[in-house]
Amino acid sequence: MKTKIAIASDDVGFARKEEIKKYLIEEKNMEIVYDPVTCKEQGVNNFARLADEMAGIIQRDECRLGIYICGTGIGFTCQINKHWGIRAVAVTNPYSAKRARLSNNAQVIGLGCRVNDLEYSKMIVDVWLDNPFDFTTARENSKKNLLEAERNDNALLVKPADVRWNMGFRPDDEKSEG
């Protein structure tokens, strides 16, 4: 079964998004379930709406991963992190991508086309995809911190009624990625 992923961009990141999308489909055998920006003009000043939509798609378990591409990846990740259970990181190098997923179970990464070239961006995506969060290998302190963060998020943010899964923090989430 193909892993499902959401992808979006602003006008600045549109060309890179198209290249990364092609890479995900052709080289990584992934299924794109959300790609609302089909031309550069659709990405102008829409990052907040796109972040809100992508968060909902992940919360409803239509997919569990997302990539957003703009100049830096920062603004989008700030917006999407406002949503219950969502963990997004703007990553600029493979090590940060690895730690974002392995240590923090980040479902979404923001990539900056003004920060890295295409091949380096592909490397970042590969490392992020190839290092899933694993409770059996995560440091005990990290697991406790993540579970506490989930409890705090629940106290600070209202869990939407249409959230279909536990967002990956509890080891009892049996459903596989995708």
TrEMBL record:
Protein family per UniProt: Belongs to the LacAB/RpiB family.
Organism: Escherichia coli
An example molecular function term from Gene Ontology annotations: intramolecular oxidoreductase activity, interconverting aldoses and ketoses
Any single Pfam family the record assigns to this protein: LacAB_rpiB
Phylogenetic lineage: Bacteria, Pseudomonadati, Pseudomonadota, Gammaproteobacteria, Enterobacterales
InterPro entries documented for this protein: RpiB_LacA_LacB (IPR003500), RpiB_LacA_LacB_sf (IPR036569), SPI_LacAB/RpiB (IPR051812)
Domain of life: Bacteria
Listed SUPFAM superfamilies: Ribose/Galactose isomerase RpiB/AlsB
Gene3D superfamilies: Sugar-phosphate isomerase, RpiB/LacA/LacB
Name of protein: RpiB/LacA/LacB family sugar-phosphate isomerase
Keywords carried by this UniProt record: Isomerase
Record PANTHER family: RIBOSE 5-PHOSPHATE ISOMERASE (PTHR43732:SF1), RIBOSE 5-PHOSPHATE ISOMERASE-RELATED (PTHR43732)
GO biological process, one term: carbohydrate metabolic process
